[in-house]
Amino acid sequence: MGPVALPAWLQPRYRKNAYLFAYYLIQFCGHSWIFTNMTVRFFSFGKDSMVDTFYAIGLVMRLCQSISLLELLHIYVGIESNHLLPRLLQLTERIIILFVVITSQEEVQEKYVVCVLFIFWNLLDMVRYTYSMLSVIGISYAILTWLSQTLWMPIYPLCVLAEAFAIYQSLPYFESFGTYSTKLPFDLSIYFPYVLKIYLMMLFIGMYFTYSHLYSERRDILRIFPIKKKKM
């Protein structure tokens, strides 16, 4: 008797694609809920909704960003084909800004920059996860491919500027409250505002590296899936 073929749902490739589809779907639903919630609140309450953005959707945002750390594991074990370092830089930016800068300072949570930053993050992620989710099941649309590889070009630098502005606005509160600043043995100490200022410079260096990688990736992908112009 010859070898017995496994059912499709038991094959490793099927299980991997099913898992990735479920992961992308969960992320898409989370970010879509956040974006929809922010949009409805803005049209209902106007600028007042921007002040309490973090209180309204901060928990779901933190959950989505925490789950996104799984993407590093995906790349490491080989079920995603992205490069590890650029994705690590992008995730590190968000984790530091969201959990260290915004979550730890209630005064920063009420700033308009938090609302702007969340809008930028969700615009990028809704498109990216939609594209990834459909790609896993073999569906591709030229316009969606182009959008996923182009939308980040104006928005990602704006994200970094918003992140830098959030750090700048948080500095007086870290200085006043001494959050994360600590004394070490031998008369040494860590003054956290200095750490943030150093990170502020590193943020723009990381942006250059990430932008270069994403642009190279965009060129390679759009070479495979060109957008054909209609003949007039």
Automatic annotation (TrEMBL):
Transmembrane regions: 20-43, 55-79, 129-147, 191-211
Biological process per Gene Ontology, one example term: very long-chain fatty acid biosynthetic process
Bilayer disposition of the protein: Multi-pass membrane protein
Major localization listed first in the record, in broad terms: endoplasmic reticulum
Reaction equations catalysed: (3R)-hydroxyhexadecanoyl-CoA = (2E)-hexadecenoyl-CoA + H2O; a very-long-chain (3R)-3-hydroxyacyl-CoA = a very-long-chain (2E)-enoyl-CoA + H2O
Pfam families referenced in this protein's UniProt entry, alphabetically: PTPLA
Known pathway: Lipid metabolism; fatty acid biosynthesis
Main enzyme class: lyase
Record-stated family: Belongs to the very long-chain fatty acids dehydratase HACD family.
Its biological purpose: Catalyzes the third of the four reactions of the long-chain fatty acids elongation cycle. This endoplasmic reticulum-bound enzymatic process, allows the addition of two carbons to the chain of long- and very long-chain fatty acids/VLCFAs per cycle. This enzyme catalyzes the dehydration of the 3-hydroxyacyl-CoA intermediate into trans-2,3-enoyl-CoA, within each cycle of fatty acid elongation. Thereby, it participates to the production of VLCFAs of different chain lengths that are involved in multiple biological processes as precursors of membrane lipids and lipid mediators.
Name of the protein this chain belongs to: Very-long-chain (3R)-3-hydroxyacyl-CoA dehydratase
Gene: HACD4
